[in-house]
Design brief:
The complex is a heterodimer of chains A (270) and B (256). Chain A has 270 residues and is mainly α. Chain A has helices spanning 2-7, 10-24, 30-34, 40-49, 58-88, 93-107, 110-125, 130-155, 158-166, 171-182, 184-198, 203-208, 226-234, 240-269. Chain A has 14 helices and no strands. By secondary structure, chain B is α/β, with parallel strands linked by helices. Chain B starts with 6 loop residues before the first strand and ends in a 5-residue tail after the last helix. Chains A and B meet through helix 9 and helix 10 of A and helix 2, helix 4 and helix 7 of B.
């Protein structure tokens, strides 16, 4: 009975994967990764003649990677630093406030984070931009990186830190050369999971990076991303087929990231 | 006890307290000799490890600990020095072998230099690694696997690597906190032989639960009880003819 009930968890997953793969695979080709987004008119012609829709989602793939990379550049050093601080000061009052805020931040709906970033960055720079989206993604990545860093560091034996300090090392060098490398796989897993979480985020991106019909590498310009493209395609009946193929790409990226995270954390446990 | 001229460290009225008025170590006064092994014995909670940690100021890692008195190491007032310089002068080896897991055997030996930002040329580096590992009797066992991780070694080898890591920095004194309590008898006897060799170069202070170990390797012994130094004497003298009744009770197993 329990066995049957627990197999229920597999039903939505398999149906998602089946639907996305079966409807999306036809569109996937090299052009899909390298070409610009098709316009509605070309798509409707292709649909009428029974061909696949020409064009691809290159601006979305590059945009997603670009914005997540900038967000990671901000979130990883900051998150690890805060995580180390929290672990070093477990009973400090200020540290417990920071820990509490980080936990609260994890629960804030992404649309609210998008709205706040809009009011901070978009209104200040007077433009939608990749930078604004990266700020929103950074805020979403931080709690997970902070938590995973703190939890991994807590599991390290205290003697490791003590033996580095006993050699005359400063606290900073101990953390940099001994503690963080020893906790690397745990921290790395946390980073990958946080990336796989934000790469599928749509709501904050709609409010911050908006979208772009061509590839953009300027952090001050509007930028496309895979999730916002899916939303655009969904709103255009001619481009509906593109929804499935874009979802397939996004799903693959998320699965691969999760798989790597799991492998890395398992290798640590062994 | 017969006082010789080769005193390397003097403790004067050294007290350590965790909370106001409660002492883990109380008014310890003693002169420790160079090129000698001094064993610190006593029942659990008597302040042995606390005393050892006060010497290289490891106690400062935890707040609320107060140290009064004087520690003089080669004419340096340890309690007034920069703790990082003190720790370079007083190498420490812990109860459990703990080579740095992400570093190779060679990097573990050189860890003290790396962590202190001291650069060494390639030939100096190779010399330090070879000498330190030879001193701990590990060179022949690991010379072909210097780039392997230190955590692949056996427990006894790991502990010898930790001793190599501590002596690579050429400290004045070596502090060992129950270094063999996590090891099997064969590994223990290897470490004991090693300490007898190392005392030709360094002053060694070893905290031990194992009375026969203290009798086997130490030149002088301290017996501590409830934070106080009850007796400090030549090991042979203390084991054959202790001057304090408490020491006698402890050594004969009639304690408590």
């Amino acid at each position: 009975m329990v066995c049957v009930l627990s197999s229920i968890i597999a039903i939505p997953l398999f149906s998602i994967v089946w639907k996305v793969v079966s409807k999306g695979y036809k569109q996937i080709s090299l052009e899909f990764f390298t070409q610009n987004i098709p316009n509605s008119w070309e798509a409707s012609l292709a649909l009428k003649s029974g061909n696949i829709i020409p064009g691809g989602i290159a601006p979305g793939i590059t945009g997603s990677l670009f914005m997540v990379a900038i967000a990671s550049l901000m979130a990883i050093p900051l998150g690890i630093t805060i995580g180390v601080y929290l672990c070093e000061n477990p009973n400090n009052k200020y540290a417990s406030i920071v820990r509490f805020i980080s936990d609260l931040l994890q629960g804030v709906p992404s649309i609210v984070i998008g709205l706040i970033t809009y009011s901070w960055v978009v209104t200040t720079l007077k433009s939608y931009s990749a930078l604004a989206a990266s700020v929103a993604l950074t805020i979403m990545m931080l709690p997970m990186i902070i938590r995973s860093t703190e939890e991994t560091l807590k599991m390290l034996p205290n003697s490791l830190k003590e033996s580095a300090l006993a050699l005359g090392a400063s606290r900073i060098k101990t953390t940099y050369y001994v503690i963080i490398p020893s906790a690397f796989s745990g921290i790395f897993t946390g980073i990958l999971l946080s990336v796989s979480r934000v790469i599928g985020e749509t709501a904050p991106l709609l409010l911050t990076s908006l979208g772009s019909s061509s590839i953009n590498w300027n952090i001050f310009s509007p930028t496309s991303s895979i999730p916002t493209l899916i939303w655009d395609f969904y709103n255009d009946p001619n481009l509906l087929n593109m929804v499935w193929s874009s979802s397939l790409i996004l799903l693959t990226i998320v699965f691969v990231l999760n798989y790597i995270a799991k492998t890395v954390s398992q290798s640590r446990n062994n | 006890m017969e006082i010789k001229n080769n005193i390397i460290m003097s403790l004067k009225d050294l007290s350590v307290s965790y909370t106001e008025g409660i002492y883990a170590v109380k008014d310890v006064t003693a002169d420790l000799l160079d090129k000698n092994i001094t064993a610190i014995m006593g029942p659990s909670g008597c302040g042995k490890s606390t005393l050892l940690r006060a010497i290289n100021r490891m106690h400062e890692l935890y707040s609320n600990i107060k140290v009064t008195g004087e520690i003089n190491l080669k004419n340096n007032n340890v309690l007034k020095m920069n703790p990082m310089s003190v720790r370079k002068m007083a190498g420490m080896v812990f109860q459990r072998p703990n080579p740095f897991p992400t570093m190779s055997i060679a990097d573990n030996v050189m860890a003290g230099y790396k962590l202190n930002g001291i650069r060494k040329s390639k030939s100096e580096r190779e010399e330090i690694i070879k000498n330190s590992l030879t001193d701990v009797g590990l060179w022949n066992e690991v010379k072909d696997s210097l780039n392997k991780k230190g955590s692949f070694l056996s427990g006894g080898q790991q502990q010898r690597l930790c001793i190599a890591r501590a002596i690579a920095l050429k400290p004045e004194i070596l502090l060992l906190d129950e270094p063999t309590s996590a090891l099997d008898p064969i590994a223990t006897s290897k470490i004991e032989d090693l300490l007898l060799e190392l005392k030709k170069q360094f002053a060694i202070i070893i905290v031990t639960h194992n009375m026969s170990q203290a009798a086997r390797i130490s030149d002088s012994s301290m017996f501590m009880y409830l934070g106080e130094l009850i007796e400090y004497d030549n090991t042979k003298k203390m084991f054959t003819n202790p001057s304090n009744k408490k020491t006698e009770e402890y050594l004969t197993g009639n304690f408590g």
